[in-house]
Write a structure and sequence with these properties.
By secondary structure, the protein is mainly beta. It contains two helices and 13 strands, in the order αβββββββββαββββ. It is elongated and about 75 Å long.
Amino acid sequence: MVKKILISILVLAPMLILAQLETSADWKRQIYDREYTFGLVGHTMGYGVDFRYLKFQDAFNKKGLEFELTKLRHPKENTRSPDRSYSNAKGYVFDRENSFFTLRTGYIYENILFDKTDQGTVAISYLLSGGISLGLLKPIYVEVPEDENSSFSPRKIERYNHQKHLGSTIYGEASFFNGIGETKLHPGIYVKAGTIFNYQLLEKKVTSLEAGVVYDLFYKEVPIFYEDPNGEDVNLQGFFQMYLAFNFGYRKN
C-alpha cells in the first residue's frame, strides 16, 4: 500500500510543480523563527511516529533535530492466523523470537524548492537527515498449555524458543509488555531523504504530506528470527524502507 501511494506521488509531483509555476498571484508569507511538527509514519517495514524541531536559517532553509520511534518488521514476517479450535487464540509470527523497534535521533535539513504562490497552492521542499538509530530488541512471549497432553490444561506464558516450541501447541503471542524488561540495545546509524508537500492551510500551521526513503544500518545482524546455524542466513544488518508521513504542527517567532 505504501509503495503504491509513493509511486502515485512521484507521478503527480511534476504536475504540481508546473501548476505552481503557472500562477501569477502575488503571495507573500510571513517568515517565522521556529517550527514544531508531529508526524504519523507508515513505511514498507512497519510504522512509527516522529517529532521535529526546526529553526529557519532564512526564508527557504531550515535546520534542526528529529526524533522518531518506529517499528521495523523483517521482510519474511508472516502472521499465522489464530487456531479457532481454541478459545481466545491469537495470531503469532512463526520463528520470530524478538520484536524490533528503533529510536532515531538526528540532524535534519530542509530546503524549500517551490514556495506557495497563493493560498491554494502547495510548497514543495526536500529534506535530508541522519544520525543515531538506537535499536530496541524485545523478546517475544507466547501462550502455551502447561500440559501438552491435556486439552483442558491451563495456559502459561513462556519466552518463544524455536527448538523448545517446534511442534508444540501455541495459543498465540502474549501481551507486548511480557519481556519488556529484557529489551536489549542494538545501536546503529540512519540516513533519510524525502520530499515534502506542505499545504499550510493556515499561516502558522503546518499540514504536510511527506514521501521518501530511509536506511538503518546496525553494528551487527538483528536477531529477529531464529536462525539455523547450518541453514540460510535469515537476519538483516541493514533495513531499507520507503515511507509516507503525515505531519502536523505550528510555527512561531
